[in-house]
Amino acid sequence: MSRRDRTERAGRARTLYLGTLFLPLALQNFLLTYNSTAMNVALSAILDDLGTTLTGVQAAISLYSLVVAAFLITGSKLGARHGHRRVFVLGAEVFVLGTLLTAFGPNLAYMLVGWSLVQGIGVALMLPALLSLITREFTGADRTRALSALGTVGGIGAAVGPLLGGVFTHYVSWRASFLMGTVITTVVVLALRRTPGPGPDPAASKGPR
Q1: Which domain, by its residues, includes 91?
Q2: Which of 79, 180, 202, 203 is at 20 to 30 A from 55, Cα to Cα?
Q3: Domain contains 63
Q4: What is the pTM of this model?
């Protein structure tokens, strides 16, 4: 095999790897932005189902945002120390646990723990790792396009959230949004596990800082 053939084959393999890495990350980003807006249209259904107050549900929503903000720096440091892919998968697994607790929880306490706390921590672990994986693996114009596409997917998720969340709430249940999160995040984790990186994560090789 000539050097040119080897170069072309390596280029095709690299393109395939980047595509199989980007798609699950973009899908997860869509879900995270969807979650940030979908529940706003389900407040009445949540109140009736859980037998709680509007103040309680609004507190759960606010606490979720606070937990995400509070743990973002920690998530970033963990990714730099242990590897962004590993921390992303860990965050996704924590997120799945939170979606299940919320989806099957009988009262507000389960929502506070499952959604506000557990899901919030999962998101704080995933977000820095997601962005770091994109910026590490993509270079030049490819990085610009990947980040732009990621932002577009996130915007679509935020815009679709009230519409799709309203459909789920009206025709199925507000809990369906969290079960959808379980399914999508599980698929993303399985996809990432089947897509090994081209080499060791340089962030993980630096050791503790």
Answers
A1: 24-196
A2: 180
A3: yes
A4: 0.86
